[in-house]
Specification:
Elements lengths: L9 H62 L1 H12 L3 H4 L1
Length: 92
């Protein structure tokens, strides 16, 4: 800080310097917090996309299961495979 003598004591000038330093530190911390909030916002946006995608997948699975029920015969085949352990992919 530029030293201008307008009736300020050395102690008062030191207090002003200290306050300026504290203000700069707070400004830097606020900037870091703002960046963290932006990153968190991006994470939530990506999470929303994942949730929507999973919902779409569940809807597709539900639709396919309904189609299997409507066709009837396939349900019995799937149940038979599961009961004897033939279809490992069906069990998962």
């Amino acid at each position: 800080m530029q030293q201008i003598s307008v009736g300020f004591t050395q102690q008062q000038l030191q207090v002003v310097d200290d306050l300026e330093q504290v203000a700069e530190e707070r400004d830097a911390e606020i900037t870091r917090i703002a960046q963290s909030i932006e990153e968190l916002s991006q994470i939530f946006k990506e999470l929303a996309v994942l949730v929507i995608d999973q919902g779409t997948i569940l809807d597709r699975i539900d639709f396919n299961m309904e189609q299997v029920k409507k066709r009837g015969g396939l349900t019995n085949n799937i149940e038979a495979c599961l009961s004897v352990g033939v279809c490992a992919a069906c069990r998962d």
